[in-house]
């Protein structure tokens, strides 16, 4: 009702719901994009920080190599001038540390071919410098200080040192340039993130505004629909009461009509049955007369008369009697249904275990004749319902299960039940001959029977069961396959209120 009213007064409910879902999806996508951008920028920042630290480590390593070179040169000059052992020890210590410092520098710049080439040149020049230093120190250690000083004076050490300093400075400049480049990339990343964040925010704001406008429009239309629905509901109760009264009157009329028709049909039926008895007596007298005529004057008895008296007439009377008896049973069934429809339902507590056991004892002779067993699977939930109606339902179902067992197979009938919320479901399961799928609905129709008609009955039992189930506020259905038994499921309210049991 509400969707119809909403579509009448404005935005369709389905369109509003779909539009809101689209807006929410866009908002979520924008947030996801912002989250992905933040994660990407964080990763880039981490990479940038790592490379910045790496650049600083390279600069420190270059500075460490430069310091060691300067210390080595200073300690050599100190030893040549003073020939004191501490200067020589310092020189030897520097000479031992320098290769390690170069290895660390080379390892740090392994990703930079330019720096690697510069380090190779640096090492070559330092090797040449070290050879000159070792030569002068060897002269001084051999007791030739003057020769060592003279050799030192002829060296071009200042030029070599300047070259080494320039090379170290060039390597540091390259690292600084890398740092500038990486800072520029970092700024580009930050700008891209802010652009992404701005676009995501714009999408979120637009989606929020569109959703808000749709909700306001939908709310306005829904209020209008609610007002119309309230106006409609004010008159609905009166309409329902009026139609319920009409249905009750119609139902009562149908019940009275069925009762009157069934009762009126019995009068001519009784006459037919009475005249059939008279005909039967007359047929017996005619047959006796034909017998005497055959004995006294057989020539006056024709073959047609003999057949009519002894075969045709008894056969016709038998057909009439069988038909009237069937008609009588059908009328009695209609009267029974009519009386049951007029009976007042009286809810009362019913112990289902005791009720099924009582039904089992009443059918025990039939169960024993069929070689069957009736059992209750677990504890059956109790009901507050009409005792007579529920007893008739279970009696019909259990009796049918016994009547239609499969010959040659030990019969097994199981009753079980469970409560789900305010309702109870019962199952009556058997391993009998079963019901074909095409007859699952038909078996509940009046005067309809399924399968082999080898059992007495008029086809009103299950129709009566369904009518009683409806009156008790429930439904009944069946699941079955031919040759594999049947399971009737009865769904009822656990507590029947008096209003539910009205016809």
UniProtKB/TrEMBL annotation:
| Superkingdom per UniProt | Bacteria
In the Enzyme Commission scheme, what number(s) does this protein have? 2.7.13.3
Does Kinase show up as a keyword for this record? Answer: yes
- One Pfam short name: HATPase_c
Q: From the UniProt record, list the coiled-coil ranges.
A: none
> Domain Histidine kinase: where?
260-496
Q: Keyword set for this entry?
A: Kinase, Membrane, Phosphoprotein, Transferase, Transmembrane, Transmembrane helix
Name the catalysed reactions. Answer: ATP + protein L-histidine = ADP + protein N-phospho-L-histidine
Q: Where are the transmembrane segments?
A: 19-41, 192-216
Specify the protein name.
histidine kinase
